[in-house]
Amino acid sequence: MRVWAPACTGVEFAIDGGASHRLERAEDGYFEARIPGVTAGTRYWFRLDGDQLRPDPVSRFQPDGPHGPSVIVDPSAFRWTDQSWTGIDPRGQVIYELHAGTFTPEGTWRAAVAQLEELKELGITVVELMPVAEFPGRFGWGYDGVDLYAPTRVYGAPDDLRGFVDRAHALGIAVILDLVYNHFGPDGNYLADFSSDYFTDRYKNDWGRAINFETSPPARAFFVENSGYWIDEFHVDGMRLDATQDIKDASREHVVASIVRRAREAGGARRLYLIAENEPQHSVLVRPLSSGGWGLDAVWNDDFHHSAIVALTGSREAYYTDYKGGVQELISCAKYGYLYQGQWYRWQKKRRGTPALDLPPHAFVSYLENHDQVANSALGRRVHQVSSPGRFRAMTALTLLGPATPMLFQGQEFASSAPFLYFADHGEELRENIRKGRHEFLSQFSSVLDPEVAPLLAPPDAEETFLRCKLKLEERQTHRHAYALHRDLIQLRRSSKVITQPVRVDGAVLAPEAMALRFFSPEGDLLLIVNLGCDLELTPAPEPLLGAPAASKWSLLWSSESVKYGGHGTAPVHPNAQWWLPGESALLFGPVPMTADGDDD
Questions:
Q1: Among this protein's residues, is 277 annotated catalytic?
Q2: Nearest to 397 by CA among 489, 302, 510, 518
């Protein structure tokens, strides 16, 4: 048994309700000893300076929550069946963000396992789990985790999570974890009792004390090794690093680069998939370690989301201020990823982003929904509820057929009627502060200040708020039009290397609300046209991207206006003569050989 506790003069290993064993002080503030008779299932504490009982900072499980004793876990006891699993390539993936507590009525890993086959049939290749590290209370998003090595007891035992990953691999689905290394939650974090060096006042942090990655190697190693731990002991396939802008470090090698290096070392020959969230849009995250980058595979692209939401809703409140939702923005996202790569950003009154023109499309993750963006509204409404049906279908097509890696948020695929709201069960002493903080955050949206809205804001600490967010899985059938839309688009994407691995993508504005994207490939080009406006006749059509490849003509492959998806049906488009585009629709065309007599339609 070993623990780093330089703040203490003495440390004991105390079996819960039993004997205590003194640990010997070693070098660099560590205490260690061999403890006889300790087996898996033993509950224990560390007694600090003969007084305070504290859980293990690297506890593998906290069955009574972060304030209770730790438990010895034998990670080798689980019988894995994924020996042939080799990981995934960063290209060609479709991500599904999942919150274990609301994904199923039961809110457990075992219940989630039963839904994995449905995700496979949908075409999902990567499940991204919202944070699973132990947090206080009965429910929460997980971003207030305090025991970074202990999967929360709320969703089941550690082996239940292992079983989820093992079954996913058997179905060909990768699993990545949302890891939070930028702050700890306000309740249940006892690290400072072991050492104040875990934290620093050198930097400001949006959610509490900043973490110290610079002056204490053991404190830094606590986080770096954590990334390898989840890969080693739970066989996860990578990570999504939360809010990397608040992982502040002036070391020669930034700690994110060290985390990435450790993760890939743990993965060995298995190919990992490493993603970051980064609000300032720093492209260094996805540049190679060998050239001074931080070595991740992809970054979330809020620019695409913000522009798409403005296009879908017309609203430009708060952080949507600097987006017009025009088709040129959507084309630029498809071609270049970030819209802001160093330009002035009015909302923040500073420049935003860094150059990223050379990055490949799969280095960006695009989405219409994620946990934050659905919840960052007064009522937690889903995108289909705040947009017209036609625009929703068209923008879904652009997201799932666009060159970036697409991501769905749980329930999006069947137009879930359940909202996703902010919920956290932190106890009475923090209740009022959490409610106040959430209201202040939402108040950046001026519509929230409407006196009719305030009574509708869901209290984050109420169990009812949490329960309202649980998916109604039967809506896969009752909302079958939306489900068919997502299923068919994902299958179309996955079956086409032209979409997932194009040689080049170019785009053009066809009208104020209509655009074309052309995917160039030796296997045959594809043409995606999205019209967010009214019915449109393109006569004449002096746009070279509309011209079919040599000796070919365009043939309609797919339409968002199919009655199968709840559309009105697609009238003749005449892509090789006088183009006619139905309003609020997306159409995909592929080349077919020209007939001998040159007849176009």
A1: yes
A2: 489
